[in-house]
């Protein structure tokens, strides 16, 4: 899925109390990345230890839980036939829990990227106001660099963009980087380290919850949650999850 450039935060790592939650009560809000799923399965079956708890939040009005962090752990355990996972329940609507987005960026040939996007049926046009429209959620993405372009559409078009960028990265056509802050991406554009960044509106917590209630998911790396703590490692035997 590309390299991540994560903003630096002073977030403490704390020992957490966890509870066991049934996997079938957990609901994803983003699509899976096959390679990350395979990597988790290989890691957990090799070590026999589940060391990173699921981070969940109650979905209002239901007995189910939003997966805030742990999509591939959840899917991997399900694939292995497990029934439950150690989990930390978050107060999702607390001011201490923030939700932002990731900004995909690339080093490579813009015309090749545009050709692939248009082959997928996406409408991409030059638009000097694309960034402002993207921030308001009026378009799927703005592509910002030497030029300013708008990709029309919404969540489904974002999924297509995500897939195309991932494929081109795997093919070696582009170098894909995900930025936690668009300001960092702009600095790297000025330095010549990347060529273009894709800008979109960050979803709100309410939008995340409503999406999950509808049984839908975002494209991978749409949400970037920042929490008041990082959970310390736990030591739970894989066999305890069946």
List the uncertain runs: none
Secondary structure tally, helices:
7
- Helix-and-strand structural type: alpha+beta
Work out the helicity level.
Answer: 25-40%
Q: Looking across the biggest beta sheet, what order are the strands in?
A: 1-14-10-15-12-13-11
Bulk shape: globular
* Biggest pleated sheet: 7 strands, mixed
Order of SSEs: EEEEHEEEHEEEHEHEEHEHEHEEE
Number of strands: 18
The amount of beta strand, in percent, is: 25-35%
- The gyration radius over C-alpha positions equals 19 Å
Explain briefly what this protein structure is:
The protein is an alpha+beta fold and about 240 residues long. It is built from 7 helices and 18 strands. It is globular, with a radius of gyration of 19 Å.
Explain this structure.
Helices cover 31% and strands 27% of the residues. The chain has helices at 34-47, 71-80, 110-119, 130-135, 155-170, 182-191, 205-213; strands at residues 3-5, 13-14, 19-22, 26-27, 49-50, 54-58, 65-69, 84-90, 98-100, 103-107, 124-126, 141-144, 148-151, 175-179, 196-199, 224-226, 230-231, 236-237. A hairpin with a 6-residue loop joins strand 6 and strand 7 (65-69).
Give the tags.
242 residues; alpha+beta; 7-stranded mixed β-sheet; 5-stranded mixed β-sheet; 7 helices; globular
Secondary-structure blueprint:
Layout: E1 3-5, E2 13-14, E3 19-22, E4 26-27, H1 34-47, E5 49-50, E6 54-58, E7 65-69, H2 71-80, E8 84-90, E9 98-100, E10 103-107, H3 110-119, E11 124-126, H4 130-135, E12 141-144, E13 148-151, H5 155-170, E14 175-179, H6 182-191, E15 196-199, H7 205-213, E16 224-226, E17 230-231, E18 236-237
Parallel strand pairs: 1-14, 2-17, 4-7, 6-8
Antiparallel strand pairs: 3-8, 5-18, 6-7, 9-16, 10-14, 10-15, 11-13, 12-13, 12-15
Helix pairs in contact: 1-2
